[in-house]
Specification:
By secondary structure, the chain is an alpha+beta fold. It has helices spanning 6-23, 103-106, 165-172, and strands at 25-29, 33-38, 51-54, 57-61, 67-69, 85-89, 119-125, 128-139, 149-154. It has 3 helices and 9 strands, in the order αββββββαβββα.
Length: 174
């Protein structure tokens, strides 16, 4: 490529994609944990068998195959499900250095391998990008089948609604 075109190409890229990158709202969920479990042969269409993480991300599993996002999908689809998510091995706080894949590629097409692995799930929800810590603690293929699975995952950060002593002290030194 002719070098005099590089500045023009860079400018076009920034104009086209800069506003999208700048407008992304990134959240990192780490620390506090929530345990979720779906029992064997439990109906995935019932709310108690779905983990409602966000308005558009409800993780569940049918009696066979992998997990899916029932808020956006009616069943598991290879190399797509769970829709609006990407997965990587590692911690959410290190999300910028992780390599994200669809869930099936991340699980190496054998979900029992994911049990006990520290992972980061990226939920893309409109302009929001939520990186959260998650670790599978069981997978039905190993515990009698029927679509059973369980995991622990991070919860959203708590934003205090009332001024705290620490908050008042920080305001004094601004």
């Amino acid at each position: 490529m002719n070098r005099r075109w590089l500045p023009l190409c860079s400018a076009v890229f920034l104009i086209a994609f800069g506003s999208t990158l700048a407008s992304a709202q990134v959240e990192v969920w780490s620390g506090r944990t929530f345990a979720f479990a779906k029992g064997p042969f439990a109906n995935p269409t019932l709310p108690q068998n779905q983990d409602h993480i966000t308005t558009h991300c409800w993780i569940t599993r049918g009696n066979t195959m992998g997990i899916y996002n029932i808020a956006l999908e009616s069943a598991y689809t290879h190399y797509v499900s769970p829709s609006a998510t990407l997965w990587a091995t590692g911690d959410a706080v290190n999300h910028a250095s992780l390599s994200f894949k669809d869930w099936e590629d991340w699980a190496q097409s054998y979900p029992p391998l994911t049990v006990g692995v520290k992972a980061c799930m990226l939920i893309v929800d409109g302009p929001h990008q939520i990186y959260l810590d998650i670790m599978f603690t069981s997978w039905g293929q190993l515990t009698g089948g029927g679509g059973a699975f369980s995991y622990v995952r991070a919860l959203p950060p708590v934003v205090p609604t009332q001024p705290t002593s620490w908050g008042r002290i920080k305001q004094l030194y601004r």
